[in-house]
């Protein structure tokens, strides 16, 4: 498809990303993107910025042409503060 049509399509909410969008993200944010996949032959794919040395790393899982998920260490989990509830009754 034409590049302009592709960009218009990818701009829509709910549109799925692909390898091209991951490469663009790596280039834009200077990040190495590591994909753990469900494929036997290519269980780890690394996408690096073309013109930069990566300054950060992002880990994703990729399940058999179906879905991406973010991965992070348990130490990196956000802590949630319990909000105080104000009951009116």
Automatic annotation (TrEMBL):
GO BP term (any one): protein deubiquitination
GO molecular function, a single term: cysteine-type deubiquitinase activity
Superkingdom of origin: Eukaryota
InterPro entries associated with the record: Papain-like_cys_pep_sf, Peptidase_C85-like
Protein name: OTU domain-containing protein
Family according to the record: Belongs to the peptidase C85 family.
UniProt source species: Aegilops tauschii subsp. strangulata
């Amino acid at each position: 498809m034409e590049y302009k049509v592709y960009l218009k399509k990818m701009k829509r909410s709910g549109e799925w990303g692909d390898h091209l969008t991951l490469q663009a993200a790596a280039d834009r944010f200077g990040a190495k993107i590591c994909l753990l996949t469900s494929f036997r032959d290519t269980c780890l794919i690394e996408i690096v910025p073309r013109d930069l040395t990566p300054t950060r790393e992002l880990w994703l899982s990729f399940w058999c042409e179906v879905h991406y998920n973010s991965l992070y260490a348990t130490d990196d989990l956000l802590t949630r503060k319990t909000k105080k509830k104000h009951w009116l009754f």
